Predict the structure.
Amino acid sequence: MAQLSKANNHNLRKYDNKTELISIIYGTDNLINDVQNLYLQEFENARIEYNNKQTREDRKIQNYFEHISKNSNRDLCCELIIELGDMNFWQDKTQEYCYKMVQVYKEQLQDFVTIVPQFQVANAVIHFDETSPHLHIIGIPIKERIQKWNEKTSSKITNIYKRISY
């Protein structure tokens, strides 16, 4: 949860209010709420089914987002960064030229969602205030049909990428 709060401050430039130098292309200006809402959308039915199978109250999960955030063996969410070009390419480009990347990164995000349906995106932001424009994607890798939950749970991102070849 602390890391998610740091990502919220960094990605959405909460520390300096320079929101004109970022572009939110998916989600809102509150990353924590975006991730919490995605947890509800993705895991609430599985949580209810899991709780219905429990005979002991102390084994029931009241809030899956909080349950995962307290588990040091699990990732609450993951961040991916996509950057096209390097410092040399971007050093002589105008800010207007850099802003053309909004459409490029929107298409990159759409392609990513299509190619990796196991990764559910909560928020995506483009930064224009660093050496090069780049896209920060925050989301949850989803693992289907595990024994304990019978439906789905959050998973480490490495599980997803082992199955993908580019």
About this structure: The first strand starts at residue 22 and ends at 26.
